[in-house]
Structure formats: structure tokens, C-alpha cells
């Protein structure tokens, strides 16, 4: 299995412009499922289970079961009863298209519209289903073809390429480890506000100076200052390995 986010030889054979345009028959519900399944394995290797998918989407497991059957019939998801869910090649292409839209919109809202990075996720959730391919291309061009969104998540290229580099969860880093912050999870706006207040953002260099048992607390040095991070915050930050 290739590292999360890394393209395989089969992916590399995809023709240029594979992610554009989105299929006219695509539905917001299917797009949300595909994006969630893809994102689950982007920063860790274990495939998502139907129950975990239901929890992430905030819907009943029975609803997930019915949708998974529909998506499997369309050749978007590979699934065996009671087993984990995996994207097919076609499903991954569709998922990357949605992810690209979402992250370009987040970047645009922060760069051009004055939004803070802790405000853009929900807005992008709505806009990603309604933005035209022409406007998305114009946004990408205006932003200078960015490769990462404000939280550090990779923005897939129009050709399906996904930038990737070796990473480590800050909560797993040993004292003495120095690395550049790659990504901060945007699931909790409070976490984003807390780390921003401590000067931690993607691209910033941090050094782990101490870690409590069970990683309930991690101390890091940022720009010469020490900062104590809770285990919850440390598990929301990825750094270079």
C-alpha cells in the first residue's frame, strides 16, 4: 500500500486534467462520502469502517449502509459486508476532485475574502458543491496554483497529482525531534485558534523539548519560546519526520 496521499504508477497514468470537470450527475451526498473516505486515510494508513464513516458524517449507520451499496454499484467504493471501505480507482479520482474544490475554496476565502483559517471549513462545505469548473480554474490561477490550503492539507492538482512528504504526528514525536509543521487539523476551530495564538502554523519550525507520560502534554519550542500543548492539540499537528 502506498503512503497516504502518494500517487501510484496507475495513478500517474491518468490523463492530464483528470479531475476537471466534475461529472454532471455528481450529487452532494456522494461527494461528501467520497471526500470523507479519502481524507480518513490521508494522514494514517487504516481504511475507514462504515461505523467510523457514519460518525464522521453525523448520520445513522443504516443510512451509510444504503449509500455504500449505491456507491459500490456505481463502481466508486469497494466493500465487503462488515469490512472496511476503500475507494476504487474511479472513486479516488472523484474524491480528489471534491477535495481539490474544497481546499482551493478554503485558500481563496482566506487569501482573498478576509476569512480566518478557523472559519472557512463550513463555508467551503457549501460552496464546493455549487462552484463551476470555470470559476474554480480562475480561482486556482489567481492564487498562483497553490499546493496546500491554509491548514497545510495538500491541494490535488488538476491532473490528480498530490504533493506529499514524510510526516509524523506531533504527539508521537520524541523529545529532541525538530521539524516543520506540515498540517494542522481543521476539525476543531478552537484548536486552530489556540495554536495560532502560540505562533504555530504550517511552515513554522518546532522542536519537542519534553513530553509527559501517555502524551497528555507535549512541550515544544517555537521561535525561541516554550509552549505547553495538550495531548488533544498535539494529536492535531503533523510535522516533518
From TrEMBL:
Keywords, sorted A to Z: Activator, Cytoplasm, DNA-binding, Iron, Manganese, Repressor, Transcription, Transcription regulation
Principal subcellular localization: cytoplasm
Domain of life: Bacteria
InterPro entries given in the database record: DtxR_MntR_Metal-Reg, Fe-transptr_FeoA-like, Fe_dep_repressor, Fe_dep_repressor_sf, FeoA_core_dom, HTH_DTXR, Iron_dep_repressor, Transcriptional_repressor_C
Bilayer-spanning residue ranges: none
Pfam families hit by this protein: Fe_dep_repr_C, Fe_dep_repress, FeoA
Keyword Repressor in annotation: yes
Location(s) in or outside the cell: Cytoplasm
Chain segments carrying region Disordered: 1-25
Record-annotated HTH dtxR-type domain positions: 27-88
PANTHER family according to UniProt: IRON (METAL) DEPENDENT REPRESSOR, DTXR FAMILY, TRANSCRIPTIONAL REGULATOR MNTR
Similarity comment: family membership: Belongs to the DtxR/MntR family.
Assembly and interaction partners: Homodimer.
Protein name from the UniProt record: Manganese transport regulator
The organism of origin for this protein: Agromyces salentinus
Gene name in the database record: mntR
Amino acid at each position: 500500500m502506498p503512503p497516504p496521499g502518494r500517487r501510484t504508477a496507475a495513478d500517474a497514468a491518468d490523463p492530464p486534467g483528470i479531475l476537471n470537470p466534475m461529472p454532471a450527475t455528481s450529487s452532494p451526498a456522494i461527494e461528501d462520502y467520497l471526500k470523507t473516505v479519502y481524507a480518513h486515510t490521508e494522514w494514517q494508513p487504516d481504511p475507514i469502517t462504515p461505523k467510523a464513516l457514519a460518525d464522521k458524517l453525523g448520520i445513522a449507520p443504516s443510512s451509510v449502509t444504503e449509500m455504500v451499496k449505491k456507491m459500490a454499484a456505481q463502481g466508486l467504493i469497494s466493500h465487503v459486508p462488515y469490512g472496511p471501505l476503500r475507494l476504487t480507482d474511479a472513486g479516488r479520482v472523484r474524491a480528489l476532485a471534491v477535495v481539490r474544490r474544497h481546499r482551493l475554496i478554503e485558500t481563496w476565502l482566506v487569501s482573498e475574502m478576509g476569512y480566518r483559517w478557523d472559519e472557512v471549513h463550513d463555508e467551503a462545505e457549501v460552496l464546493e458543491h455549487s462552484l463551476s469548473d470555470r470559476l474554480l480554474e480562475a480561482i486556482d490561477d489567481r492564487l498562483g496554483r497553490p499546493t496546500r490550503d491554509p491548514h497545510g492539507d495538500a491541494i490535488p492538482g488538476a491532473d490528480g497529482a498530490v504533493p506529499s512528504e514524510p510526516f509524523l504526528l506531533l504527539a508521537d514525536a520524541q523529545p529532541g525531534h525538530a521539524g516543520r509543521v506540515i498540517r494542522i487539523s481543521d476539525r476543531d476551530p478552537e484548536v486552530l485558534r489556540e495554536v495560532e495564538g502560540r505562533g504555530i502554523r504550517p511552515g513554522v519550525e518546532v522542536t519537542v523539548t519534553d513530553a509527559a507520560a501517555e502524551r497528555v502534554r507535549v512541550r515544544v519550542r517555537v521561535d525561541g519560546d516554550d509552549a505547553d500543548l495538550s495531548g488533544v492539540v498535539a494529536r492535531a499537528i503533523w510535522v516533518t519526520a
